[in-house]
Amino acid sequence: MNPIIIVHGGAGDVPDSRVKGKLDGSKKAVIAGHEILVRGGSALDAVEAAVVSMEKDEYFNAGYGSVLNLRGEVEMEASIMCGKNLDVGAVTLIKDFLHPISIAHKVLTDSPHSLLGGEGAKIFALDKGFHTVDPKSLISPHAKKALEDFLKHGEFGRTEIGMDEAGVGTVGAVAVDSNGHVAVATSTGGMSGKAIGRIGDTPQIGSGTYADDLVGGVSTTGHGESILKYCLAHSIIKLMEDGLDANTSTKKAVNGMTSRLNNTAGAITLSKNGDIGIHFSSKRMSWAYIKDKKIFYGINQGEVFEEQYEQQ
Ligand code: ASP
């Protein structure tokens, strides 16, 4: 089959000043993943590459530019799943590595466990040759400003996600490779002003991430406590398994979560055949995919831009 990859750059109330940066970063990320797929690479490597690209980019709430907890620190989490055999790898409470998604991928391939957190994740990463960075080097000026604003007026979980300058931008990617294997990766800094040690939906399989070659793959973003109560990623998979198409399933589950729990979210979905689902109940969510030599992308409700894409 023709391989395909789709990415998102976080659901929320993205301020106008951040729109262009998110669209550019989403396009760059989808190209990074697509180039791996067209050279015959695996869906797993493609989703990792797309997420790595956004973890480096301060326009996203993942890696450098992650939002801050109440103590002003970055605490990141990520997960990755392989649809071929349902293998998973996830990490949480990561403070001093730039690319949590790459450590999660290593957990998938090299650990008997599924989810490692905090000190244990650090020990594992060091053992696998990952290099630490100074935790302060992960803090962007926008993330600092977002925490200051949150401390002035925020109430966790009651404000719209991303109301503040940098308070939005969890990243994710879903791919199907030329062998028909599905993979999904999701990475985040969580939510501005979160408690120390708070773990959201992103590292939890079935909430932030799900992949199954027999059905498809989903990456989610939005209000973590709601997404994990609703097992949003797996809810979408279940609807597809029951016969709904990718877009209808995505819309139905995201809207179902929002009406039941009164918080917003977004998701990107691919069916095993490469059919696309994109939906968000938040004001904005950046997304991008490449199909038939064109990049399609958008951030506002109902908006689709397209550009010619010639592979390098
Ligand atoms: N879902 C993420 C979390 O709650 C935040 C986001 O997607 O913006 O940790």
Automatic annotation (TrEMBL):
Catalytic activity: L-asparagine + H2O = L-aspartate + NH4(+); Cleavage of a beta-linked Asp residue from the N-terminus of a polypeptide
Alphabetical list of Pfam families matching this protein: Asparaginase_2
CDD domains per the UniProt record, alphabetical: ASRGL1_like
Keyword Hydrolase among UniProt keywords: yes
Record carries keyword Endoplasmic reticulum: no
Keyword terms of this UniProt record: Autocatalytic cleavage, Hydrolase, Protease
InterPro entries: ASRGL1_meta, Ntn_hydrolases_N, Peptidase_T2
Coiled-coil ranges per UniProt: none
Family named by the database record: Belongs to the Ntn-hydrolase family.
Name of protein: Probable isoaspartyl peptidase/L-asparaginase CG7860
Species assigned in the record: Galleria mellonella
